[in-house]
Design goal:
Blueprint lengths: L5 H37 L6 H4 L1 E6 L4 E6 L4 H6 L12 H5 L17 H22 L1
Antiparallel strand pairs: 1-2
Length: 136
Amino acid sequence: MKVRGLKELERDLARLARQVPEVAEAEVEATGRLIEARAKANAPVDTGKLRQSITYEATSGGKGAKVTANAPYAPYIEFGTGGRVDVPDGWGDLAAAFRGRGIRSVNLPARPFLIPAYSAETRALMERLMQYLRRL
């Protein structure tokens, strides 16, 4: 029995081994920047400081992305306060870090801006990566 095309297959697999991580890293960076832009667009504006505090940073040597809202009041805008707190499923641990101590009773509604941006753009990232893999 003779197998034909083995060298071509090895060459193609080596090319894919280089290409797939490059594409994935580019998509992760694009997604981080899209999350940043969408979160800024979603953020409520009073003075503009909340929007200005939203930043993107590459992590893990370009394999990850970090988008943060550094305004000290950002989590209270995202999750609300007092009796109007609204924490999406799966975000309880993060929200717990900003739980008040009951000193004041301020009831501000949640006005999420970062989590919806993250949810929408990570879903889109997965769809783009799946399409890319299907094309291979």
